[in-house]
Amino acid sequence: MNEFQTRKLKHRFALLDIDNNGYITTEDYHKVPRKILAAFGEPATSERGVRLLGVFMNWWEALRVAADTSGDDRVSPEEFFAALGKGVPNAEVFQSTGGPVLNAIVDIAANGGDQVSKEAFGKWFVAMGVPAQEANDSFDRLDQDGQGYLTRERLNSAMTEFYTSDDPNSPGNLLWGRF
Q: Which of 35, 60, 146, 172 could covalently link to 127 via disulfide, CB atoms 3.0 to 4.6 Å apart?
């Protein structure tokens, strides 16, 4: 991993550490999807809500198994970087763990469709800790054709770019805001 990729992962870690205790924990992975559901007014008991909560827990379990080398059921920054460093630049690693999460969120943000509006994108990323203006800027950078929405395919591509690209000019690298 180069310095640029390390900065990205530090930023991503900070967004996942919802309670700012210096670790990513099960509690953080419970809070994030609930914040997303609240932003969209989607009940946790709805089919989409249950799916989102489930895929987040699967994502947490995959991260915990891969990263928690100390066995304390939490992931430190060092463990996070070491685990993700093994997966960078492997797009298959992202698709197998983050892909289901992204798809569950898009199902909510696009109300079952495949196009996420700028407003919905903002709700989603603000719920995940990205400042509103940075979420708007990220959307604008990703909406390269100016259609006013991002497709599921484009979002999948951007997420994969974020986790795998070492190109600072790649649009997906600003997905989670400035770092």
A: 35
Instruction: Give residue-wise pLDDT tens across range 4-18.
Output: 988 988 999 999 999
pLDDT tens column, 94-104: 667 788 999 99
Handedness of CA 14, 17, 22, 26 (dihedral sign): negative
As given in the structure block, the two tokens for residue 91 are 């797009």
CATH match of 3-174 with 1.10.238.10: yes
Q: Has residue 160 got a pLDDT over 90?
A: no
- Per the document, the length of the chain is 179
Q: Where are the domains of the chain?
A: 3-174
Say yes or no to pLDDT of 93 above 70. no
Half-sphere exposure of 68 (CA within 13 A, CB side): 15
Decide: pTM greater than 0.70. Answer: yes
The residue to which tokens 């709700």 are assigned: 123
- Class of residue 5 by CB neighbours under 10 A (exposed 0-12, middle 13-18, buried 19+): buried
| Pure H helices in the chain | 3-16, 26-40, 47-67, 77-87, 91-109, 118-127, 132-142, 152-164
